UniProtKB/TrEMBL annotation:
The chain crosses the membrane at residues 12-34, 40-62, 83-100, 106-123, 144-167, 173-192, 204-226, 238-256, 263-284. The keyword Ion transport does not apply. It comes from the Bacteria. Keywords: Membrane, Transmembrane, Transmembrane helix. The keyword Calcium does not apply. This is Prenyltransferase.
Length: 288
């Protein structure tokens, strides 16, 4: 029985189902924070698109020939590659169906640039002096900015566009900034996790530039900014729960280091997004 639950847990984490659920939760959270009717189809779209993009990134052929440390996750991906390719194909087609069915094609200009960044993120397109090509994510220090930007757009701006709501109101700009700083802080943890892999790949990241300790301090500062911005628009239990999510995330940052295994980052670091959604959902439910 223990082996069964361990295998199920690995499947959920390594197949990117868990991170996709985090995207689902953050879209729903945006509607709750703005006290708007939840458009579940958009949350579902975020889930499916995240599942597709993250598996596309993890299953790129060249990644199986990289001179990097072999992890438990990489071995799992290698063994389950055929079924994952099938599942991500279904997710990709389902995403297109939801997008077309709900008539959001007039926002395709915005969504297109997010898709382009997501695909080019791990695609070898940038020429180097040695005649080789490197992916967008290998541009020095750019990885964390791209991830936080795309996630912020998908989970804040797309819900606003879907409801034809102004993006430039003070409340919505503050929400976007809050989401960006929170996600940026969490993304830095994965730079810490990948410190050795990025060193072998000669990719300059924040830990490689300023060290793991100062990267953690930067992450804590970003969480502090998130907590400060929250005071401008929230109150009561909603404010308390958002501050609580920042405090718990700060503890995860504090105890992180490059020797932690994948489970620490996949469950705790990514899990901070899902935890924040649950805390917001709780506050919104009690307020009704």
């Amino acid at each position: 029985m223990q082996s069964f639950f361990r295998d199920v847990g690995r499947c959920i984490l390594f197949s990117n189902t868990f991170i996709a659920a985090c995207a689902f939760g953050l879209v729903w959270q945006t509607y709750l924070l703005l006290q708007l009717p939840v458009r579940l189809w958009l949350a579902e779209l975020a889930f499916l698109a995240t599942f597709f993009i993250y598996n596309l990134d993890g299953l790129l052929p060249y990644k199986f020939n990289q001179n990097v440390l072999i992890s438990e996750r990489k071995n799992w991906l290698t063994r389950n590659r055929p079924i994952l390719l099938f599942c991500m194909s279904i997710a990709g087609l389902s995403s297109l169906y939801l997008f077309a069915r709900h008539g959001q094609t007039h926002h395709i200009w915005f969504i297109a640039h997010l898709v382009a960044i997501s695909i080019l993120y791990s695609s070898r397109i940038i020429p180097q002096k040695n005649g080789m090509y490197m992916p967008l994510r290998n541009v020095p220090l750019v990885k964390v900015f791209l991830v936080a930007y795309v996630w912020s757009c998908v989970t804040v701006i797309l819900p606003l566009l879907a409801g034809n709501i102004s993006i430039l109101s003070t409340e919505n700009v503050l929400l976007l900034l809050r989401r960006f700083f929170f996600l940026f802080a969490l993304t830095l943890l994965f730079d810490i996790r990948d410190f050795e892999k990025d060193r072998l790949a000669r990719t300059l990241t924040f830990p490689g530039l300023v060290g793991v300790r100062f990267t953690k301090i930067l992450s804590l500062v970003l969480l502090l900014i998130f907590a400060e911005l929250t005071w401008f628009t929230e109150s009561g239990l909603m404010l308390f729960n958002l501050e609580l999510s920042a405090a718990i995330a700060a503890m995860v940052v504090w105890f992180s280091h490059e020797k932690r295994n994948d489970y620490y980052f996949l469950i705790l670091a990514d899990g901070m997004m899902l935890l924040q959604f649950l805390l917001v959902y709780l506050a919104a439910t009690i307020a009704i």
